[in-house]
Amino acid sequence: SRTISWFPGHMARAMREIAERLQKIDLIIETRDARIPLSSINPHLEQLVQSKDRLIVYNKVDLAAPQTPAETLAALRRMPGQNVEFTSLLTNSDPKRILKHIVEKARQRPAHSPPITAMVIGMPNVGKSYLINALRRVGLRGGRGTKAASTGARAGVTRRVSNIITVHRDPVVYLSDTPGVMMPYIADPLHALRVALTGGINEDVVDPEIMADYLLFILNRTNNTSYKDEYRLDQCTDDITELLPQVAQTIGAIGRGGEPRFNEAARNFIKRYQKGKFGRITLDPL
Fold this sequence. Notes:
Elements: H1 9-21, E1 27-33, H2 43-48, E2 54-59, H3 68-75, E3 83-86, H4 93-107, E4 116-122, H5 128-139, E5 165-169, E6 172-176, H6 189-197, H7 208-221, H8 226-230, H9 240-251, H10 262-274
Parallel strand pairs: 1-2, 1-4, 2-3, 4-6
Antiparallel strand pairs: 5-6
Helix pairs in contact: 4-5, 6-7, 7-10, 9-10
Protein name: P-loop containing nucleoside triphosphate hydrolase protein
Pfam families: MMR_HSR1 (PF01926)
Organism: Dimargaris cristalligena
């Protein structure tokens, strides 16, 4: 029930750098996580960029429940004027569609205008750098050296606002990567758990056993019993203290005295969810 606060110094610096560079930015690409379409909205970033032309990209739609795009658009109707795209970076078709949107804006500019520059923003681990690399890959048609932004499965890989990155040559389109920026605190513990389960909060901040307990609740509430087969269990359970010893046994997380390592089992349970082993799941109620 405690308030979650995780706002490292590089995030505060990133907010300042984003604000300083906004005057030279033509388009904001705000990246969110389709598994938490509402919880991945950072109101502080929203306020900072509200005056700029903006494209909202919901990434990782391949990991979200199939009905999520329609339900998300319905939930966002109270915020008119937002251009929204849903993407999976597993194929080139979605990045191509987003790049086409940006290129069309570049071609609408008056002749002899400077190249269009877009800034990619969002909360940690929503796939900003993956998106930039995908846009660069399809825009420059692959080849060596097309990866321009560092990526990783944990929060906080990108630490500084980057210099401009070329993703298209005719017309020229530049992108700027930014660190993921969390809210200074999240008062709602369920909101915090949803963000943590998708990797948006450093794994040392939230107890993995609490995260695993909430994940088990979500799976059972949606009649998702895939974890039973994944861990070769005899039956499903709604008790995390029953599940974790069985998970530990299955993955070999047993201490010298034969005691199950609950923390390791919980992290494994969470990691398999993040990799899509339990199917397509949206954590936010829509």
